[in-house]
Design the sequence.
């Protein structure tokens, strides 16, 4: 009787382990790593130039990001035509969330 109980226990453990292994190894995410690199490079570029020189490179990075995620361009309509740091901080949170939500969609740039 003990032998049968032990066999049933071992069999159930083997089945549960193989099921867990399949679930853990199954990966449906197709992330475009080239896009990821470019997306995060543009965010970093904006961050680096925000307090220095909001030049053409800065503007190009904002345009790139805006193709995929919202950018508060209306906040550039201030007296100095600069992108406020508060807007950047808010937008950056939205961009990072957007990326997390969409990274497995094999985004093309």
Sequence:
């Amino acid at each position: 009787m003990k032998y049968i109980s032990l066999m049933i226990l071992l069999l159930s453990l083997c089945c549960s382990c193989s099921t867990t292994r399949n679930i853990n190894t199954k990966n449906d995410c197709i992330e475009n790593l080239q896009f990821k690199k470019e997306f995060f490079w543009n965010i970093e570029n904006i961050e680096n130039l925000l307090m220095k020189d909001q030049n053409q490179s800065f503007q190009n990075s904002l345009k790139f990001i805006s193709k995929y995620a919202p950018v508060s361009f209306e906040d550039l309509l201030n007296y100095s035509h600069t992108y406020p740091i508060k807007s950047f901080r808010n937008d950056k949170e939205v961009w990072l969330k957007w990326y997390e939500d969409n990274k497995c969609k094999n985004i093309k740039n």
Confidence is low (pLDDT under 50) at residues 15-26. The radius of gyration is 24 Å. DSSP finds four helices and no strands in the chain.
